[in-house]
User: Fold this.
Amino acid sequence: MNRSGSLHVEGHTAPQAPSPMLRRDSERFVDAVESLGEEAPDHPVSRWIAGALTPSILGLHAVQWLWAGRAPFVAGRPLRWTELHGAEAACLAGAALAGAAFLHAHFFWTPHPHYHGYGALGKLASLVGFIAALAGFVWYGFLNA
Assistant:
């Protein structure tokens, strides 16, 4: 024991605090995630690009994956593109559809003055669908393999 009363192990150093640059990046990430719980900016560009165009593209890809029964995925060591088939592809497509629904509800309906409630309900419903799709992906892809 040293003078301060704490145990000091020879050759062991205490963990250091993260650098200010790393802390700022993590704070920006947390702020970005927290902003998804709030209202989106009421700007026509964000409403139509992030709330209509991007979810449409993501949703069309997800429907294509459901229709074909296969979906692209990054896996393996080293990381490379692979194809998922069957239930795993359907779960990944469901997660993509839920993500598209979340983007649409957040950027398109949440800033609307009259339909704000529909945006909040859409975000909650899409998060439930996203969690269910990820649970199915883990079940069929890892636990039931």
Remarks:
- The two ends are 51 Å apart (CA to CA).
- The mean pLDDT is 83.
- The helical segments are 20-35, 44-68, 87-109, 116-143.
